[in-house]
Predict the 3D structure of the following.
Amino acid sequence: MKQIWIPKAGGPEVLRLDQSPDPMPKNGEIRIRVEAVGVNFADIMGRMGVYPDAPAIPFVPGYEVAGTVDQVMPGVTGFQEGDKVLALTRFGGYSDVVCVPHKQAFKRFDWMNAQDGAALLVNYLTAYQMLVVMGSAKPGDKALIHGVGGGVGLAALDICRIIGAEPIGTASAHKHEFLKERGLDVVIDHRQDFGRVALDLTNGRGPQIILDPVGGQLWHKNYRLLAPAGRLICYGISSGVAGKKRSLWHLFKAAVNLRFYTPVRLMSDNKGVLGVNLAHLWEYTDEVRRWMGQIMSWYDEALFRPHIDRAFPFTEAAAAHDYIQERKNIGKVLLIP
């Protein structure tokens, strides 16, 4: 099999394509011949050596794949050889063959291609957990989505449209035209004063929900901006990453900007601060499967389609990482074995 390794911490150029023997699945697992792999910012942080959940270097990154089942082991129910699937991987996804517990895999519809399958899992599950499960978004709620042009941001935009919430987004200027065509009426340059715009749009009350993948100083500004009974949902800390390699100075600044919201303060302010990390839900597969069931149902009803910006071959994995870090992508970036 072909695999993309992180042999040492560093810039995109450290990624290495190697050959290894095909893995053998264990009881309760299926083996998948991979056709598409999702690229996520967690992979980039792992490559830089700043992702706390990553295995010790060297390791193979990757959280999501789509392909075809070619082997089924005892203890597996609901799958057979030849099934078209998408699956969550606990690292190791940058491979053209993977073995996963069968509860981490989902059958694809006949009309769902592998690229759509690989683009669904991490982005749409994260957005669903934030907006529906923890954010309790309802029709008419104003939802401020930072980084709305990225994979999770576009997924959140789609889910807002489906449930009737009213999104406001921040994004780089070159993404604005696409986002408006996608149905986002209000999009703000991420370098501008988004708080003033959000207050104007909400008659001075602020949004009910704010999705924040940046962290640092933005946490404080977002918290102050929330409407009464509003929820700040944190799902990343990209402010701790600058450039293509690890920066101890930026990590230090991110740590210094951490704040603790005590129960007393939250009660006094009538606000909530929530955290989301899909990678910490491996022991709750039944719950995640329920969420994915709803997402697949929406896909089946043609209520959304993931937007895939670019698909890079395995040989250009470094270019895929560079593309995301340069903020060029609108939506999902994939790797193709």
Summary: The domain at 2-121+284-336 is CATH 3.90.180.10 (Quinone Oxidoreductase; Chain A, domain 1). The chain is about 30% helix and 25% strand.
